[in-house]
């Protein structure tokens, strides 16, 4: 199924390159098989790229098939949507107009060119006239009808314009580049080498209007190939809010499954009250466009308006579940532990965890004292290649990332404060310099940092695991249980206590984690965990001794039954599904096969259900959808990084609609580049080109804060850098 999907996308994209050989635009949407006649034109055997059915006929039948023209002896294509058909009709009308204009003599063309005052085409025509020998030869040349070669060159120019525009959109280049004389000169030289003299690259206006609209239409057609798999794969809708450089509030919507994130739209909410009813109305519109039966869940952050909107959607569409973003939830738990609030409600947590806040305050004080003085910073850089991170509180796991870096530079800080240069340049603030030195040389200070990093590492690893655009909904519950067990063990080991003894710190931490875990344990999480065939194997239970089997866990069983009651309202069907589920969990009945049992631990869950789930089709369909879903809305937050890259302070004159078109094209070009072999070089320098592109920096000269952001937001990018032997210095920057 995956390979067929990739081939379909490659067919739709690859066909665009064939415009160099074709005149009529609708040939792009069919595959020529063979010609049944040696005569020019004539009958051709072709296959439609949409319905995949073979037909025989000339171009008129291709047009009738795709545009639903009756009376041509060929049936309409059932897979061409209304929007796509309208776009193809517009292309055909434009082609017919161009074809009609080709009948005008070249003398008329020359006159129109001189009136338009186009510099490059004017110079080209004048050079052609100078090279002609006599007036008679000139007249014959100017009055000649356009040849097939001329028409091919026109098609090639259109295709070249589209490729240049695609480069702008995919890389986020400013349209002002099109005004540069060097930009024009490069493509003028290329055009001369390609024997298409007089070619002018796309203009500023064309790039931001016509070509942008055409490229969005082209991508929407290609995305239909991915959307065709949504009924079987299911999809998650994620949404998040942001404000552009002009403080206009925006809400984005992205559809994601194991194919990757697909940008749908961003809504300009200027002048609107973003309450739960308004957000719910936007959600409902997107659900209707995507297809109610295709949506498995909606993921947002934990804001009260988003939560209320999600509950409204569950009431309106019982088979769709709202789930909070797992990354946000874990990060809130970490923030409650590392920076507890001094309120009556959180008094116990504050009493037990306030010492962590004091350690963080000392770290920030040392960092500011060093970095806010140029000479002290220069002294520090003599000892360390690693820099001190300035991470804003809105970053995920900001406290832990700061402490991890501080631990790495501990030895360099100690060398700095005992050096002769430190004594010479501390006279501007001797009291604080003495405090910094005492703190840096205090072993108990570093012991506290070690303890914080040790017991928060499982939480940090949870964020790293959930902050991905890969399926992981079925792993949320067991990973929470395992992380809490590791945290308890770390605290009890540090305090040298036995398991049956009481630990006030663990009680405080456990209360925070348990509250957040319940938010991440919904009926959808429970059914996803239950559908994982590995959970019933002895190997998995040995690796996760603290996680009960799903059929023995009372909380999971209750939530699983709640899900089945909502998803299967018919009593008879639900009883049948429950019987199949019981056989699956107990490895009995149709799931008692020896191969089925053995391959539970060796095969990926989706592959196992494909091979062994045919006897329980309803469960197989659930597994095919649910096991492909993500657990966080991180992709919607990363989308704002793309927005900020494209709609930056330097490009703040972009209208919301044009910015949305640019983000749509940019984001989905990145998605499609990973789905086609021609555009992705997994082993070369172009791997993950689109991830680093939004940072607008060279990977060998990354700013530390930007790389720290990427280390959590773009785990694939960090993974590539950290395993690249050539990036030794960068790999030391971030663990």
Q: Structural class of the secondary elements?
A: alpha/beta
CA radius of gyration: 31 Å
Shape: globular
Helix content: 55-70%
- Major sheet attributes: 5 strands, mixed
Mean pLDDT: 78
Strands side by side in the biggest sheet: 6-5-4-7-8
Q: How large is the share of residues in beta strands?
A: 5-15%
In DSSP terms (H or I, runs of 4 or more residues), the helix count works out at: 36
**What is the count of β-strands?**
8
Distance between the termini: 37 Å
Q: Residue ranges: pLDDT <50 for 5 or more in a row?
A: 1-22, 103-144, 678-735
Structural description of this entry:
The chain has 735 residues and is of the alpha/beta class. Among the domains are: 2-101, no CATH class; 342-511, no CATH class; 523-630, no CATH class. 59% of the residues lie in helices and 7% in strands. The chain has 36 helices and 8 strands. A hairpin with a 5-residue loop joins strand 4 (235-243) and strand 5. The longest helix has 25 residues, at 347-371. The protein is globular.
């Amino acid at each position: 199924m995956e390979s067929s999907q990739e081939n379909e996308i490659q067919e739709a994209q690859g066909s665009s390159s064939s415009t160099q050989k074709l005149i009529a635009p609708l040939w792009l949407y069919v595959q020529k098989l063979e010609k049944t006649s040696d005569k020019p034109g004539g009958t051709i055997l072709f296959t439609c790229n949409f319905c995949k059915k073979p037909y025989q006929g000339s171009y008129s039948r291709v047009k009738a098939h795709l545009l639903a023209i009756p009376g041509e002896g060929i049936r309409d294509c059932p897979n061409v949507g209304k929007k796509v058909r309208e776009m193809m009709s517009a292309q055909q009308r434009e082609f017919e107009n161009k074809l009609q204009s080709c009948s005008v003599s070249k003398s008329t063309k020359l006159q129109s060119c001189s009136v338009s005052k186009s510099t490059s085409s004017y110079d080209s025509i004048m050079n052609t006239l100078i090279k002609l020998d006599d007036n008679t030869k000139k007249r014959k040349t100017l009055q000649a009808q356009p040849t097939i070669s001329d028409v091919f060159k026109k098609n090639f120019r259109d295709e070249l314009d589209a490729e240049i525009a695609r480069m702008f959109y995919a890389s986020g280049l400013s349209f002002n580049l099109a005004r540069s004389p060097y930009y024009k000169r490069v493509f003028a030289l290329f055009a001369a080498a390609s024997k298409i003299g007089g070619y002018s690259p796309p203009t500023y206006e064309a790039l931001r209007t016509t070509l942008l609209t055409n490229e969005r239409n082209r991508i929407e057609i290609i995305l239909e190939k991915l959307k065709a798999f949504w009924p079987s794969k299911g999809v998650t809708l994620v949404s998040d809010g942001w404000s552009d450089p002009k403080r206009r509030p925006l809400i984005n919507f992205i559809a994601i499954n194991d194919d990757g994130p697909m940008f749908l739209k961003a809504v300009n909410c200027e002048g609107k009250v973003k309450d739960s009813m308004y957000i719910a109305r936007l959600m409902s519109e997107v659900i209707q466009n995507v297809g109610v039966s295709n949506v498995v869940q909606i993921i947002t952050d934990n804001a009260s308006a988003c939560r209320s909107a999600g509950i409204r959607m569950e009431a309106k569409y019982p088979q769709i579940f709202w789930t909070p973003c797992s990354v946000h939830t874990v990060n809130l738990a970490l923030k409650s532990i590392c920076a507890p609030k001094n309120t009556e409600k959180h008094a116990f947590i504050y009493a037990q965890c306030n010492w962590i806040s004091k350690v963080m305050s000392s770290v920030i004080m040392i960092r500011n004292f060093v970095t806010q003085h140029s000479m002290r910073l220069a002294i520090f850089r003599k000892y360390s290649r690693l820099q001190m991170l300035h991470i804003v509180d809105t970053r995920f796991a900001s406290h832990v990332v700061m402490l991890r870096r501080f631990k790495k530079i501990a030895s360099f800080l100690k060398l700095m404060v005992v050096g002769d240069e430190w004594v010479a340049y501390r006279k501007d603030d001797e009291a604080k310099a003495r405090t910094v030195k005492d703190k840096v040389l205090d072993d108990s200070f570093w012991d506290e940092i070690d303890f914080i990093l040790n017991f928060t590492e499982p939480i940090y690893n949870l964020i790293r695991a959930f902050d991905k655009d890969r399926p992981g909904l079925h792993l949320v519950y067991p990973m929470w249980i395992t992380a809490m067990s590791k945290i308890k063990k770390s605290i009890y080991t540090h305090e040298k206590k036995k398991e049956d003894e009481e630990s006030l710190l663990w009680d405080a931490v456990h209360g925070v984690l348990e509250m957040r875990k319940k938010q991440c344990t919904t009926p959808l999480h429970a059914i996803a965990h239950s559908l994982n065939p590995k959970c019933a194997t002895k190997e998995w239970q040995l690796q996760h001794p603290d996680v009960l089997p799903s059929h023995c866990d009372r909380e999971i069983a209750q939530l699983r039954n709640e899900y089945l009651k909502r998803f299967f309202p018919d009593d008879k069907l639900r009883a049948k599904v429950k019987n199949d589920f019981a056989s699956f969990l107990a490895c009995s009945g149709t799931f008692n096969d020896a191969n089925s049992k053995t391959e539970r631990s060796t095969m990926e869950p989706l592959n196992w259900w494909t091979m062994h789930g045919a006897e329980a089709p309803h469960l197989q369909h659930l597994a095919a959808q649910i096991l492909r879903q993500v657990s966080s809305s991180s992709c919607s937050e990363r989308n704002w990084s793309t927005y900020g890259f494209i709609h930056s302070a330097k490009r703040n004159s972009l209208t919301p609609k044009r910015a949305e078109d640019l983000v749509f094209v940019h984001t989905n070009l990145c998605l499609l580049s990973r789905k086609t072999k021609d555009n992705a070089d997994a082993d070369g320098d172009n791997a993950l080109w689109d991830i680093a592109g939004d940072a607008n920096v060279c990977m060998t000269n990354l700013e530390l804060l930007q790389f720290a952001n990427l280390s959590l937001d773009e785990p694939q990018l960090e993974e590539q850098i950290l395993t690249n032997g050539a990036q030794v210095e960068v790999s030391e920057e971030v663990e």
